[in-house]
Structure formats: structure tokens, C-alpha cells
Write a structure and sequence with these properties.
Helix content: 40-55%
Strand order of the largest sheet: 1-2-6-5-4-3-7-8-9
CATH class of the largest domain: Alpha Beta
Number of helices: 15
Length: 339
Amino acid sequence: MQEDLREQACWLLLAIDSGLKTHVGLTTRVVNDILVVWCHQAKRSLQEFFAANADEWRRVCHLGDEQINKLEQAREKLVSQAFVVEQLAHEGIHMLTVLDKDYPKLLKTTLKREQAPPVLFYMGDLAILERKTIAIIGSREANEESLAFTQSAAAYLADHEANVISGYARGVDRSAFEGATSVNGYTTVVLPHGIRKLSGVQMRALRPMIEAGKVLLLSQFYPDAQWTKFRAMDRNKVVTGLAQIVIVAQSSKKGGTWEGAQEALRQRKPVYVRNTSDLSLAGNHALIKQGAKPLSWPVDDIAELLNPLLEKSSVLQEQQQRKQEQAGQLSLLAYTNED
């Protein structure tokens, strides 16, 4: 167990606290490059990595002087990171690395190497991610019709065994969560900040559902990381990356929802948008013009509207499982989505 804690501390050190960057500022890319070369190809642990000297870092991982200097500074924090890992374990917060077999395979096959978070923090049952998964995204300032659509859609999808993914912000995110949990369904909450930044009130409300295996909390950020606009935008890649299908309830032509929908289209995910005659919802109309599929609302029969999405999600899930079995889990980071 202590060996595992020390290795996890090294992961925290490299992924969160190393300050590594490339010449274009892609921290995630350079960390994942190290993981591919050192852990995947050389079959060596990160404890061995941080025990190595500068010459070995330079020779094996092709690191420059500035990056090596950052690593040498980071190495001095290893003891404090080991303490953090013990704290997290005590609080029931688990750490999942990009090379772990339980790391979401769909996320790894969807995101490029400069996007896939090296470490995920979570509370709950990871098996929730093995279900057919549909993300619902939308504005924090959504109107009542959009919120009603979101809550009804989330409740129906969750009641039909889907895992509903949302970002837990106010507006559409919160309505998606409330819709899924109102039917005791499954839902994944992808946070735009660290897990430990949830308030005591929020955690007390979530914990029974987490312990019941219905809610999965997920964050790509250090557990004490504050909300920032950058983190909220970066989180959107994970929300859409985890899903087979993405539903947009309400979007303007700028901001987080718009960028999230654009990311989903870049990821080649099927994107469905609430279709409305309200001309003020310019983002919805623009997304449909870009190729997103319209969902008419309100409808007399919600089953007729959403059953095709459930069926498509199941088909995509089966296709993805076959693809992943052929690729092999450990090879996904090294060989998929290369530029």
C-alpha cells in the first residue's frame, strides 16, 4: 500500500505540480509524452523517473534544460505530495491515472494526447461510465423552456438506464443532474474545479447518492483547485469526450456551451440541439446549420423523441468496445489521435 501511495505521489508531482510546458504551452502534452516513453515503452515507474538524473531525463525523454530544471524543483515537493495522497485516500477521493486499466477508454480514444488528462480524481463507482452515456450541456442562464426540456430529457434517459453527464454548474447542468437523480438514475458530474472545493452542503447532499452507486464525481483538476473560466472551458472536453452523444439545450454563439458544442463536433460526436422558434437562441440555430441534429420541443411523446438517441448510443457503445478491444488499453494513449 505504501508503495502505491508513493507512486501516486509521483503522479501528482508530474501531472499537477511539475510546471512542465512545451514551447507552445501544452503542459498535458509534455506530461503524456513522458508517460508514453518512460512508463509505456520503457516499462518503468514514476518513482524510478524521479530517482533518475538530468542526463537520463534528457536522453530517454528528450527534455530540455528548462523542463529539467522544473522537474528538479518539483522533486523537492515529493514528501508533501505523499501527504496529500494519504489525505485523499482518507476522504474517499481516488486517483485514476491515464495508464490505469479503469481510465475511461472512450476519453482516451476521443481526446488527443495534448488533451487527455494524465490524472483524474473521482468519488463513486467507475462502472457508471460503462453504461451508454449521453451528455447534456447548456447555458448557465438558460430560460425556463430550456430547463424544462433538460430536466425531462435527463429524467427519461436516466430512467432508461443511460448515464447522464453534466457539469454541475447552475442552469442546464443542474437541471440535468436533478432530472437524472429524480428517477434514481445514473449520472456523472464533471467538475470545473477540484473535488474538495465542493461545499459541505453540496457534499452532504451528494454523498448518499455516491455511496448508493448512482452518482460519480469526476475532476481532472487538483482537489483544491478553484473554479476559473479556463478550467470550466477545459472541463468541457471531458464532458463531451466521455459521451457517445451530446445534447445541447441552449447556447449562444459564444461562451462555454458554444465551445463545448464545437468541441463535440470536432470530436465527431453526434450532437443534438433543442430546436426552437425563439430567434434569440442564435447558438441553437447556428449549431443546426453546422450539422447538429434538431430535437423539436415541446413534444407530445418524449419517448418518440429520445428513444432513437438511446438506440444510437447503444450502437456506438458496442462499436467503441470492439475498437478498444482491438487496440489494447495501454496502447491507446500511445497510438490514437496522433497529429
